[in-house]
Amino acid sequence: MTAQTPPVQPFRDPRLPIAKRINDLLQRLTPDERIAFLHQFAPAVDRLGVAAFRTGQEALHGVAWMGPATVFPQAVGLGATWNEDLVRRVGEAVSTEVRAMRARDDRVGLNVWSPTVNLLRHPLWGRNEEGYSEDPALTSAIATAYTRGLRGDHPTYWRTAPVLKHWLAHNNETDRSETSSSVRPRVLHEYDLRAFRSTVEAGAVAGVMPAYNLVNGRPNHVSPYLAEQLRTWTDEPLMVCSDAGAPSNLVDSEHYFDTHEEATAASLRAGVDSFTDHGTDSSTMIGRVRGALDRGLLTADDIDEAVRRQLSVRFRLGEFDPGADPYADIKDFDTPAHRALAREAAEQAIVLLKNEGGLLPLAEDTRIAVVGLLADECKLDWYSGTLIHRSTPLEGLYDRFGAGRVTFAEGVDRVRLRTAGGTYLAVPESGGSADAVRGAEGALDPALLAGRTDLPPLTTDATGTELALVDWGEGVLTFRAPDGRYLSVAEDGRVRAAADQPGGWVVQETFRLEPHENGHLLKHTGTGRYVTVAADGVKVADGNPEVFELVVAQPGEEAVAEAAAGADVVVVVAGNDPHINGRETEDRTTLALPAHQERLLRAARAVNPKTVLVLVSAYPYAVDPAELPAVLWTAHGGQAAGTALARVLAGDVSPAGRLPQTWYASDADLPDLLDYDVIGGRQTYLYFEGEPLFPFGHGLSYGTFAYGNLDARVEQRDDGGEGHLTVSFTITNTGAVTADEVAQLYVRAVAPSVPRPCRELAGHRRVTLAPGAATELTFRLPLSVLEFWDVAHGTLRLEPGSYEVLTGASSEDIRLRTTVEVEGEPLAPRPVRERGLDAADFDEQRGTEIVDRTKVSGDAVTPLGGASGELIFNGCDFGPGVTGMSVEVAGEGGGGGSVEFSLVDGPVLATLTLDTPTGDPYAYTTLRAAVSVAGVHDVHLTLRGPLRLARVGFSG
């Protein structure tokens, strides 16, 4: 008798459709097992041979938090390349390393939380480094390229499963889990949703992660847009992963729900499929789900739908088909190809902002002084992997020009801290330095981190230790010992020279000097406590702070001036540390370069007019370039940053990076950080009417290019199908070097009926041309690129009329332009007699914000601070006339309020007063008044008091 092979369970049969396999596995899971799958750390189901699964692996510009990996430029730097092919290849390399690392460490997840597609609306946003651009089209193009690289090109199996961050309208860190972004429909549809939509529709996205903030008064984790928008853009199931701790925020910080059971149920019903909360301990979230079920707030079908979407991702990752998964045996890690790609990406990310007199590129025999606080740094950020290789600007210039032609001055202030008793802070011998703990390839020993307690704490003695002091701006300081270790505070409260770099979720290497009596108190920012001197060493404590005198042995500018005086050219490397003054949880307060770095720049420029400023930063600065012959910017460029910079300065590579966001001249040009109305606030290059420091899309080259033969044609269809705008033009390299040009195509409505962008990016292409070579570029664009959101009718609309087509080297360096005529649907008056007015569908507003109409869906409008505000609705058609109006309002306190109705520039025709508050912001009542209006008019509503207006109706 022959033993029979047991039948293959249907969910393990790759011949079956995935949907059928998912359903088979789902029905095999018990109710408790399904609930357990809702937590980020889903447990194994041993009886079915199903492994444990973790959602979430950070991979923003390389594999993060899992040890050594290839580190590529920050995301904003990848955005500055304007090169989708390059970014796709970076995504391929990153996902390949994810797979290779997963093969040796099962903590590495294949569901990657990347890329970030939040728009860089405001340059003071702390997470500016994580986004690609202020423009939705460029953001989507780069994000789509990266997700395609992460996904792979197999028709069935995915190399990794990317999740887009952070849904939606998230552009501030200050009070991020409590603030609400007021986003009117036009901004929602034309700006914030657009970047997500195009990337999702491209088909390489596994899901999204909601942001911590609220939008229009409703937390993103219960956003109706998940169902109403996101999941209508694709037939593929999308998994929604909560951000860390956000499910608890719904009750704890946002106070949006009274109980965690209500919050959990609401977010699950809204579309959240995986809860990232309480770390690896799933018991709390499982208890909340069970509690919601017991209370009837959830059904088993709600849970099944979420688990089904999770399983879809796991099947696509090949988890249940190990023999068929084409990515299962990847071993490629830190390969020569990945190293070369890291350098290529760093080179392409460099933006030449100014180059007067042809100072750059530098001649081979140039004597160079490289100075500045970032001159010998290769900074990492919160979402970086551990460096295997590193290249600082100083090292890159040494390698390229020779150590004999390069001098260096960091520019730190050399200081001692004297106690009230006359002794000085001293760093004990540790038996090693930061450099000593680097391996053969530059990888850091993990022990050399903030929190290290095996080193002796600082003491005091008669001479003390000379420390390197850097003021990073806003009074935030770091101190570094002579061996390169930063002063840091561990959990035991002792101050030690124990960190290779500032870092960590809470940075423990930063301090503030606060004036006190005849000296200063030294405050540790990580704990908020003051430094004290005790018998058992220097520590931070709540009482008895030491009063220090800051004794400056040498100001940094002295060393900089000395180095600059002996050089042909000075390269000042300035910028930010990505863990200080602008990062996740912390927005910047100013565009200004920190005063310490301004001092160093002035010192270099004073003795050597041939000063090149290199800004290495995660965001724009407002610098005065007037007296500088050359300025460059690059985001923190990863492991090859220094080599890339040196090659560009030497002319081995012609720079061709382009700014992915506007650089403003001063803080006065910026809107409030929480003003999300890019249209009304005239924000980003789309609407900004001032003169920027450097415009969106700006970037110079060592080559020159001519544009010609612009041709634009509109092809419209009679059968209702979408027409196209086809644009072609030629670019010729008229210079003497092979170089890249980034051709940019913009469109503009000539005489729009509503405010439209000053210009809007419709296409771009990065091309490489040899001297004398020419190429023709052709763009075939759907006419939908010319549409706007018609708030009067709740739809996208193509307005007929003239549209200008502009092409050139930046949003303001336009070389060619022409005009095309487009047929469309004219903007019709609002049929208010039949449909009324939704309050949030205004054309203009003053002093109001949009809030949630209910906790589930809909918008209302309320005056800011419960004072007064105005709404204007243009082109309201009352037909032959109306005789009455009504308003739906709610108010929970403060004496009610009123709504005044008038026609623009006319008298008040009706005042509808809420005398008694409804007692609940979501309990609406209807107020009525008699009015007499006919024809088409612009309507003006004035809201007074702490009420919410949801809707206005007319009768007659």
TrEMBL record:
UniProt xrefs under InterPro entries: Actin-crosslinking (IPR008999), BXL (IPR044993), CBM6 (IPR005084), Cellulose-bd_IV (IPR006584), Fn3-like (IPR026891), Galactose-bd-like_sf (IPR008979), GH (IPR017853), Glyco_hydro_3_C (IPR002772)
Annotated organism of origin: Streptomyces neyagawaensis
GO MF term list: hydrolase activity
Pfam families hit by this protein: CBM_6, Fn3-like, Glyco_hydro_3, Glyco_hydro_3_C
Boundaries of every CBM6 domain copy: 835-955
CDD domains recorded: beta-trefoil_FSCN_BglX-like
Assigned keywords, A-Z: Hydrolase, Signal
Transmembrane segment boundaries: none
Cited PANTHER family: BETA-D-XYLOSIDASE 5-RELATED (PTHR42721:SF3), SUGAR HYDROLASE-RELATED (PTHR42721)
Superkingdom of origin: Bacteria
Entry similarity comment: Belongs to the glycosyl hydrolase 3 family.
Name under which the protein is recorded: Glycoside hydrolase family 3 C-terminal domain-containing protein
